[in-house]
Specification:
This protein is an alpha+beta fold. It folds into 2 domains: about 230 residues, P-loop containing nucleotide triphosphate hydrolases (Rossmann fold, 3-Layer(aba) Sandwich); about 120 residues, OB fold (Dihydrolipoamide Acetyltransferase, E2P) (Beta Barrel). It is about 25% helix and about 35% strand. It is built from 9 helices and 20 strands. The strands form 4 sheets. Strands 6-7-8-3-9-10 form a 6-stranded mixed sheet, sandwiched between helices. Strands 13-12-11-14-20 form a 5-stranded antiparallel sheet. The protein has a 5-stranded antiparallel sheet with strand order 15-19-16-17-18, with no helix packed on it. The protein is elongated, with a radius of gyration of 25 Å. Bound molecules: adenosine-5'-diphosphate (ADP) and magnesium ion (MG). The site of magnesium ion has 2 residues, from helix 1.
Length: about 375
């Protein structure tokens, strides 16, 4: 069991700042997910922790001890790669056993560990096959098994589910989570898939352009995103964001977008007044925090429906107000369609206000 810490870690490839001043503390036994779009530095961060890359600057510590100078084999980490990287000419058993054989472990001990792990992953019946005779999901388990037999202090997983079809991916993410609950090994898991991050992580570190944007529990990241990038990256359909100004009229505070106004309740106004008044801001609100009605109700805004998408258990209604498109969530029974008029109301308690220039959360 190991705590992993990165202190001001940078990794440059020529002009490219792949990892830019990253501070990260992964607690013992934690399941930390690095989440971000392609090219944001996730793989490089994992490779730095594994020792496959040397940082340009900064420290990497395991349990408080710097490991910058340690070879990968001396770090007690096991990495699971996106493409599995199995040896095609070796049977599953030998793929799983190889790293232990290299270490010179006694044959009986190797056999015991491989069988135990195969049992755990439900792949005992595959041990005599070669990778080419396995489905994608089975290969993925073997790759995982190969990491588990080593009994590492830290698992590093680089998008291990991204080559599986959607149904299998959903099942495997559940199984990986169960596996972590059982083994409790510190895990750093890389993905660009926000759903995967939300359901698996103890905490998520959101990355962009080599930098960490926010670290927090899935719930914190979702309900209190630190900036516009995080707000839009997590959640599907994504958070509505539009330009606005906060103004007062007759002591009431309201947000005006040009297309429509939102009144701020007095209780909230007191709290935010000095931070937002007369400032150019961006307002964010998630689709589920907008109420929809087919008939007029007090405080609702009338708008034309641009699009209705029914996904079975939910409908997403896109309204068009002037040039602004606003997506709201409604029950699947919502019966209106495009060009119909309907009404919406934004739940002010669920509004996020971002600074227009810095895109950082104000409130
Ligand atoms: N070996 C390398 N040489 C040069 N540039 C690299 C190398 N590895 C990664 N990069 C660059 O570093 C950035 C981060 O890459 P990577 O860590 O692979 O991102 P991610 O895994 O988030 O997609 C990208 O711009 C990528 O092109
Ligand atoms: Mg990558």
């Amino acid at each position: 069991m190991t705590q992993v810490q990165l202190e001001k870690v940078c990794k440059y490839f020529g002009e490219t700042k792949a990892v830019d001043n990253v501070d990260l503390l992964v607690n013992d036994g934690e399941f930390m997910v690095l989440l971000g779009p392609s090219g944001c530095g996730k793989t490089t961060t994992l490779r730095l922790i594994a020792g496959l890359e040397k940082p340009t600057s900064g420290l990497i510590l395991f349990d408080g001890e710097p490991v910058n100078e340690l070879e990968p084999k001396d770090r007690r980490v096991a990495m699971v790669f996106q493409d599995y990287a199995l040896y095609p000419h070796m049977k599953v058993f030998d793929n799983m056993a190889l790293s232990l054989q290299v270490r010179g472990m006694p044959r009986e001990e190797i056999r015991r560990r491989v069988l135990e792990t195969a049992e755990l992953l439900g792949i005992k019946h595959l041990l005599e096959r070669k990778p080419g005779q396995l489905s994608g999901g089975e290969q993925q388990r073997v790759a995982l098994g190969r990491a588990i037999v080593r009994e590492p202090s830290v698992f590093l997983m680089d998008e291990p589910l991204s080559n599986l079809d959607a149904a299998l991916r959903a099942r495997m993410r559940g199984e990986l989570k169960k596996l972590h609950e059982r083994l409790k090994t510190t895990t750093i898991y890389v993905t660009h898939d926000q759903v995967e991050a939300m359901v698996m992580a103890s905490r998520i570190a959101v990355m962009r352009n080599g930098r960490i944007q926010q670290i927090g529990s899935p719930q914190e990241i979702y309900s209190r995103p630190a900036n516009r990038f995080v707000a839009e990256f997590v959640g599907s359909p994504k958070m509505n964001i539009f330009d606005a100004v906060v103004v007062t009229d007759d002591k009431n505070l309201k947000i005006t977008t040009g297309a429509f106004d939102i009144d701020i309740p007095a209780s909230m106004a007191q709290r935010i007044l000095d931070r937002v008044l007369d400032r150019e801001v961006m307002i964010g609100i998630r689709p589920e925090d907008i109420e929809v009605s087919t008939t007029y109700k007090e405080g609702y805004i009338e708008a034309e429906i641009y699009l209705v998408e029914n996904i079975g258990n939910l409908s997403f209604i896109t309204f068009e107000v002037d040039d602004v498109l606003i997506v709201a969530q409604a029950p699947p029974s919502f019966e209106l369609g495009a060009k119909d008029k309907a009404y919406f109301r934004m739940s002010t308690a669920k509004l996020h206000i971002f600074d227009k220039k810095t895109e950082e959360l104000i409130i």
